Every structure is written in C-alpha cells, then in structure tokens.
Amino acid sequence: MKLLNRLIFLLIALGVIFLALANRQVVSFSLDPFSPEDPSFGFQAPLFVLLMGAIGFGISLGYIRSVVTTIINGLTQNMNRIFLRDKGRENDD
Q1: Residue spans of beta strands (DSSP E) within 1-93
Q2: The overall pTM is greater than 0.90
Q3: Other C-beta atoms lying within 10 Å of the C-beta of residue 7
Q4: Most buried residue, 28, 32, 48, 81, by CB count within 10 Å?
C-alpha cells in the first residue's frame, strides 16, 4: 500500500512538473472585465501559477464546504435528539 501511495504521488508530481514546464509564458490576469487594456485590478503571472492557484482555491473551498456540512449535520442531529428527549418527557407528564 505504501508503494502504491508513493507511485501515485510520483505520477501527480510529474504531471505538475510537466504542466509547469509547458505553461511558463506570462499572462495577464484581470478582474476588470470592462477595461481589458488597462486593468485596475489585475496582475501578470506565469500561467501554471494561475492554474495551481485555481486548483488550490477549489480544494480549499471543497474542504470548507465539507467542514461546514459536517458541523451543520452534527448540530441538526443534536437538536433532533434533544427535541425527541423533551417530547418524551412531555408525554410522561
């Protein structure tokens, strides 16, 4: 299993290296869609940096969504348990 994990990591690392080597050209990244010639909110960076940043941002958003969903589900289960416990007490009275 350890060998398989290392092999998968090696393949991913090679893929990232090849992606970086193939996309070294500098591109302009602009957050101003109305003025592409003179962007007020933008910068220039190698394309692979933008690609890796987008992938990292997506992974971070997925992790945050997972954590929030887990917390909400836990709170919902606790509230349901408390509600059923209190409802049982009312029925006993």
Answers
A1: 26-30, 42-46
A2: no
A3: 10
A4: 48
Parent domain of 8:
2-92
> In the chain, what is the straight-line distance between the N-terminal and C-terminal CA atoms, in Å?
58
Report residue 80 CA to chain centroid gap: 30
pLDDT in 10s for each residue of the chain, 93 residues: 889 988 998 998 888 888 888 888 888 888 777 776 777 778 888 888 888 888 899 999 999 999 999 999 988 888 888 888 877 776 665
* Of residues 46, 43, 44, the one with CA closest to residue 20: 46
Beta-bridge partners for 27? 45
Q: How many residues does the chain have?
A: 93
Whole-angstrom distance, CA of residue 29 vs CA of residue 34? 13
